Amino acid sequence: METLPIKIYDDTLRDGEQQAGVFFSYPTKHQLAHLIAKTGVHGIDIMPFICEQEAELAKTLISKGLDSLIFSATLMNKKFIDQVKDCGIKRIVLFYALSDRLLFLRDPEIRQMSEFKGKTIDDDIPAKVIDRIRQNAIDSIVEHLHYATKVAGLTVDFAGEDTSRADFDFLVQCIRSCSPYIENFFLCDTVGILTPEKSYIWVNDLLQSTTGVTLGVHYHNDMGMALENTLQSVMAGASFVSGTFAGIGERAGNVALEQVLNGLRVRFGIEVEGINYDAIAPVTDFIEKLGVRPAPPYSQAAQRHETGVHVNSFLSDPKSYDAFAHSTINVIFGKWSGASNFQYLFEKQLHNPQPREQYEKMRSVIKSLATEQERYFTANEVLELWKNGAFQ
């Protein structure tokens, strides 16, 4: 059987746990990390700046001999870069959105301009404004890549969030700008809009247009095509795959790594170099016994959101993290939530705005309760806590 020297990066403990309503206890994550390590994957993602428990997990796993595997997906913020380094992690995947839709929402200059208040990329936005937010993004990315590599001394990869909705020429420009600082560039189909035919052509065209950095894929399963999209991308020349075991994750989940590995083996007669195939089933069996599985594509369950950065975008643009028109967003509250979750509840659903400091206090309390009780909270439970004075 042919072997393929691609790399497999596991996001089960980070992106997988970001599935709305999923909570892995500290012992569970510790055991799961060691099971995953036995499969021979090339990296395991931990996000230590989310809470103290995640930081302690990263430190413990590193001290237990997994230091060569642990990396951290890291928000583009020097404070978070420093926090990750302080945990002993040596490799990060810096990530930032590259689609015009998300760039427009997050550009700090645009957010201060009254003429764009309440607007999205679907409004009549001048081309010169789009050019400016793209250049602002590249400038900021390069600044943070320089800091992470030259100042913090970390090995750095970059993940382009929502690259499947990014302008192709801008994406090429961004990859070229990143290449002096990084080894790998993650192409992310964040809201799962790719098709197999588009995936092959897209990756092939990007490989033809860039040099100096390897390209890999991180695909979500909103339309049920993450597996085939990933396989076609590998056939087109992608050098690595990022996903989760059992396919758990945001909305309808990520591509399932066991399906990618066995799909390459069965359909194409290809084994991934270094993978211990006998160690895969113990991982998926362990997750199955926890009762955790991804929400089905197109289901209402796939429209539940807990992650703060996503909910924050929904406040301004319903299409930011939703590939489907007319879907109903259901926000829940837990370890991965931000102040925006509470802002969404009180302003978008209850039409009863609260001061910003109240949202931040709610976030802190719920994060602590979620970690202590190993659970998430519904909107009704948050309102009950509010009425009972838990956020005072």
TrEMBL record:
Domain of life: Bacteria
Pfam family, one: HMGL-like
Domain Pyruvate carboxyltransferase residue range list: 6-281
Keyword Iron-sulfur: no
SUPFAM superfamilies (alphabetical): Aldolase (SSF51569)
Alphabetical UniProt keywords: Transferase
Matching PANTHER family: HOMOCITRATE SYNTHASE, ISOPROPYLMALATE_HOMOCITRATE_CITRAMALATE SYNTHASE FAMILY PROTEIN
Family classification: Belongs to the alpha-IPM synthase/homocitrate synthase family.
Name the record gives this protein: 2-isopropylmalate synthase
Lineage, uppermost ranks: Bacteria, Bacillati, Cyanobacteriota, Cyanophyceae, Nostocales
